[in-house]
Amino acid sequence: MIALLGLLIVCIVGIVLFCNHSVAVQLQCAAYYREASDSDREQRCLLRAYELNPEDTDVLFLLAESYYEKNNKIEYEFYLRKIITNPAATNEQLESAYIKLIGIYKDRKDYETINEILSGEDAGRMQTLFQKFMASPPQFSINPGTYDSAQYLKMTSVGNGNVYYTLNGTTPSEKSMLYSAPILLDSGDYYIEAVFVNEYGVESEVSSGEFHIVSQVVEAPRLNTDSGEYTYPVEISVLNENDDNIYYTTNGTNPTIESNVYNGAIPMPLGETEFRFARIVDGVRSEIVVLQVALKLDTEYTPEMAVQELIEELIATGKLLNEEGANLTSSARYQYSYTSVRQLGDVSNFYLIAEELLDEEGQRTRTGTMYAVDVYTGEKFKLVGENLDQFELISIETN
């Protein structure tokens, strides 16, 4: 009897030890207590299973969910992070864990942490699935180094957002220059730093590079006009004998090959304007010539007034039926727009107004007809001639 009792005790102890050291049994116990709505005992069984095998992804998921149901977000997040760094996790398990984690941080608007976990070495294909949350450093189109000709530097990034850069050695931020077009690197030394800021405001690591450009010297444009204030219209011209490959801007940016092409004299616009001219040959840009002008005519008669009165006179002559440009000869409507102010010979200064046809699809086509309105008297003419050096002013007669 003593021997039988001893054997029974050994068996009981063995069963207890087996149950206490079996992940499967602990999971069965957890399932039992879950059915019984005993969440505390369920969690104790899961914690014991985790102690026995901390790499068991199923156990990690069950533990995470048990803490989530207890509204313990800290432990919930802890076990999800365990899953995404677990080499035993399957792709499906990883994707599920990443989705849950990113959901936590997205609700908090904690996009920095999302970028952090997706930038980890274990993120793998998750980086592709959740690319929009990442902020990868900008990529340069050319490698840092020394070049014997001018280069255009393009900066690209993945996802929605903006690239900002500096040229003076300071760390770039959203307050730095916004990258919008390739940067021309002509003669000189450049140290460029750039950062990508995604649509959620997350900044990437900084990309940087030193570029040394040793290239030919390109002659800068020489202009017929000086900066200053003008009370009469002037045409701005380039005086160089070789006046090709010249580009200009009027918006304060430096000229590139994407800017306006100089093809001949430019009418000086009304008001204040800053022109920037440069010659660009084989990617090499000359010194930039800045021209700041202010054209203020001695009249209160504006281009808008000239256009409106021209339309009224054309209605009076019968060419137009109404101010919208309806007419008897076409289903398209006539439209009129101010183009420039010019001095025509020794006559006077005139606002030039172009005539266009606006079709039913909204397309505008110039008719070739131009009108000239005296800026001082408001007198209106049809402008006829091959160019402004050989012209004729024809009065618009009212029926």
The chain-level mean pLDDT equals: 86
CATH topology of the largest domain: Serine Threonine Protein Phosphatase 5, Tetratricopeptide repeat
Counted beta strands: 22
- Derived from helix and strand composition plus strand pairing, the structural class reads alpha+beta
Within CATH, the superfamily of the largest domain carries the name: Tetratricopeptide repeat domain
What does this entry show, briefly?
This protein is an alpha+beta fold. The protein has helices spanning 2-20, 23-35, 39-52, 57-69, 73-84, 91-108, 111-118, 126-129, 303-317; strands at 139-140, 145-147, 151-153, 155-156, 161-166, 177-178, 183-185, 188-198, 207-213, 228-230, 235-236, 246-249, 260-261, 266-267, 271-281, 284-285, 289-295, 333-344, 348-358, 364-374, 380-387, 390-395. Helix 2 (23-35) runs antiparallel to helix 3, helix 4 runs antiparallel to helix 5 (73-84) and helix 5 (73-84) packs antiparallel against helix 6 (91-108).
SSE inventory with pairings:
Blueprint lengths: L1 H19 L2 H13 L3 H14 L4 H13 L3 H12 L6 H18 L2 H8 L7 H4 L9 E2 L4 E3 L3 E3 L1 E2 L4 E6 L10 E2 L4 E3 L2 E11 L8 E7 L14 E3 L4 E2 L9 E4 L10 E2 L4 E2 L3 E11 L2 E2 L3 E7 L7 H15 L15 E12 L3 E11 L5 E11 L5 E8 L2 E6 L4
Parallel strand pairs: 2-9, 10-17
Antiparallel strand pairs: 1-4, 3-7, 5-6, 5-8, 8-9, 11-14, 12-13, 12-15, 15-16, 15-17, 18-19, 19-20, 20-21, 21-22
Helix pairs in contact: 2-3, 3-4, 4-5, 5-6
